[in-house]
Recover the amino acids of this structure.
């Protein structure tokens, strides 16, 4: 039988989602904890990979077991897991419903701020900037749904079967003081480091070091830019995962940083 787990995690202390030798990953911590609780080796399959220090305010994984359990697994997991990993829901699904391959849409949010704030250091990327070209940043963000091939904005594109990503929506938000920014992007799939690379180019456009025309030229011709500098990983969140059979509300109170308008009056630009 197959069970889905709806979770969230703050990735600052981890080398990404995927289990790797000699480093601590989110997958490893959850697998080891589940194995102890269920008293047998457990392998989990997640809805995607996140890079080192990247967080997820909504994430799903599944496990397959021959039998269920007669106790509150969610309670025991939350008691045993570290504070930066939370389990929101555990539920049974059909055996052909896959945490990764059944996803129809993923949404990421990238947050960055332009003044030094010790309380934002682990939840938002810090860039000491002023007088950003916000209008051209907005134009850059609006380009992405018009193109599908993102091979030139990907780390190791040759390791992907295809570099086609169907971007369904993008949006740039700003706070009233124009000191905090939020870049939101939704697509059916993303390539390795793609969002951080795009966010880096948006910041370069804001700094007048790259132009909207150059960005569109790269997308249209698939000619890579001279330099690719990904944005910092802290501040990037996998924030929404949708399946054809499932769309659960984001547990935003556990997101860790202004997912909704509770703390900041975000304005679309």
């Amino acid at each position: 039988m197959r069970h889905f787990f709806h979770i969230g995690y703050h990735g600052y202390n981890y080398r990404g989602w995927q289990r790797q030798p000699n480093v601590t990953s989110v997958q490893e911590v959850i697998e080891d904890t589940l194995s102890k609780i269920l008293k047998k080796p457990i392998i989990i399959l997640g809805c995607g990979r996140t890079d080192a220090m990247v967080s997820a305010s909504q994430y799903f994984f599944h496990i397959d077991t021959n039998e269920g359990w007669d106790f509150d697994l969610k309670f025991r997991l939350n008691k045993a897991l570290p504070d930066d990993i939370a389990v929101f829901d555990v539920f049974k699904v059909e055996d052909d419903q896959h945490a990764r391959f059944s996803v129809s849409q993923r949404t990421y949010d990238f947050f960055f701020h332009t003044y030094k704030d010790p309380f934002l250091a682990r939840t938002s990327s810090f860039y000491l900037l002023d007088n950003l070209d916000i209008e051209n940043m907005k134009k850059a963000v609006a380009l992405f749904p018009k193109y599908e091939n993102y091979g030139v904005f990907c780390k190791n594109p040759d390791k992907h079967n295809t570099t086609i990503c169907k971007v369904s929506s993008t949006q740039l938000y700003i706070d009233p003081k124009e000191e905090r920014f939020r870049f939101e992007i939704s697509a059916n799939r993303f390539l390795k480091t793609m969002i951080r690379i795009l966010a880096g180019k948006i910041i370069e456009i804001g700094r007048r070091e790259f132009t909207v025309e150059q960005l569109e030229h790269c997308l249209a011709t698939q000619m890579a830019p001279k330099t690719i500098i990904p944005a910092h990983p802290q501040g990037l969140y996998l924030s929404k995962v949708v399946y054809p059979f499932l769309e659960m509300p984001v547990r935003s109170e556990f997101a860790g940083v202004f997912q909704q308008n509770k703390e900041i009056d975000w304005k679309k630009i």
Summary: The longest strand covers residues 55-64.
